[in-house]
Amino acid sequence: MAQAARILKTKVGIIGGGPAGLMLSHLLSKSGIENIVIEMRDHETISNTHRAGILEAQAVSMLTDSGVEGRVLTHGDEHAGIDLRFNGESHPLDFRELVDATVTLYAQNEVFVDLAAARARDNGDVRFNCEVTEILDVETSTPKFRFTDAEGTLFEVHADVIVGADGSRSFARRQMPDSVKQDFKVTYPFAWFGILTEAPKSSPELIYANSPHGFALISQRSETVQRMYFQCDPNENVDDWSEDRIWSELNQRVAGPDGFELKTGPIFDKTVLGFRSFVRQPLSHGRMFLIGDAGHTVPPTGAKGLNLAFADVKVLFEALDSFFSTGSGKLLGGYSDLALKRVWKAQNFSYWMTSMLHTPVDADPFMAQRALGELETVTSSRYGQQYLAESYTGWPHS
Ligand SMILES: Cc1cc2nc3c(=O)[nH]c(=O)nc-3n(C[C@H](O)[C@H](O)[C@H](O)COP(=O)(O)OP(=O)(O)OC[C@H]3O[C@@H](n4cnc5c(N)ncnc54)[C@H](O)[C@@H]3O)c2cc1C
């Protein structure tokens, strides 16, 4: 006989305890809106998964203004620019001077640790090691989902609203019927080979390098740990890359007449990161709403993924707050259209940065030269620099 599910009642049932799900849960609880977060991985695994690292000022404010632990201010590293490097020459862009804005380097796993600590501090209901396997009745006013906990007990969450915050392979997204959904996607013929190394900073600012050998990004994590990436084949095997081979590949991509060289050290993490641009439209169906990577993914070149997830949270939180305080579903009904406006701006920016900075291995020589012409245009024009600076540091939240 099938196991009877234990019923849990709440206002908002959130699937996924990544940054998007936890941030939404935190804001809802602050407004007195009961919610529950179901996360399939354990706390330690997520805390040790290295992903995003660049926060727009608005994402930082969402953390600090809402009372999440202020470590982002004490441990985050504020950056006022980037360096675009091509033809072996550096072209610094000063964001503060161009658009009076900065970004903060603060690793996504630290954001997760802070948000999870805030939920625990405020007695939030966040359940790790629990996988949602069924979603029911989203077209009614009592949507539900089922999950099984680590002991094998089956639960059924009855909510007023369900939120899919379950990342790029979203289970929630897959439950939307074909008749209501439209997917937009681009796959790229390259990926990023990412490393973490125990080494001093090679440069005070992030370096985005276009070279005949391919793209490289030199970024920082702290005074002693650095994050670097180089463009590679999507099927690259990290075990084929010795430390010497990695350093020589990275160095040839940033080399130039100025003699610039990377500061090296032991490499303790190697990953290949696939590239995809993806948008699901609409970002809602019935009483189910998608936020963050569940609804859209961007290639990491523009550093927009986590920031976009937080921007969705802001729009959806305000709509839910209005729904539960006034009973009006007007803002909820407008969530998808409003969030998608920013999503498409970020998709455009991420695609633009990616195509300008990367040269596919079999690229037409004309296209490689054209990309250099574009970099020259952007860096030699104040308007070009301002466009990049404004998009990189983030447009105002809706
Ligand atoms: C290497 C790398 C570098 C990046 N760099 C940047 C950057 O510099 N700046 C930036 O803004 N973005 C960056 N991103 C993107 C950023 O990491 C994502 O956009 C961000 O994680 C989105 O947050 P999320 O909460 O929507 O999704 P996730 O962080 O993916 O969280 C979703 C959660 O849902 C859980 N889940 C999934 N299915 C279920 C289920 N059925 N039941 C229960 N739980 C479930 C997952 O375990 C996961 O914890 C990067 C990504 C990668 C991979």
Q: Can you lay out the helices and strands and say which pair or pack?
A:
Elements (H helix, E strand, L loop, with lengths): L5 E4 L2 E4 L3 H12 L4 E4 L4 H5 L6 E3 H9 L5 H5 L1 E3 L1 E6 L2 E6 H5 L3 E3 L2 H14 L3 E3 L3 E6 L7 E5 L5 E5 L2 E4 L6 H4 L7 E6 L3 E8 L7 E5 L5 E5 L4 E8 L10 H12 L12 E7 L2 E6 L2 E2 L2 E3 L5 E2 L7 H22 L3 H28 L7 H16 L1 H12 L5
Parallel strand pairs: 1-12, 2-3, 2-13, 3-9, 6-16, 13-22
Antiparallel strand pairs: 4-8, 5-8, 6-7, 10-11, 11-12, 14-20, 15-18, 15-19, 16-17, 17-18, 20-23, 21-22
Helix pairs in contact: 1-6, 1-9, 9-10, 11-12
The structure holds flavin-adenine dinucleotide.
Brief rundown of the structure:
This is p-hydroxybenzoate 3-monooxygenase. The chain is of the alpha/beta class and about 400 residues long.
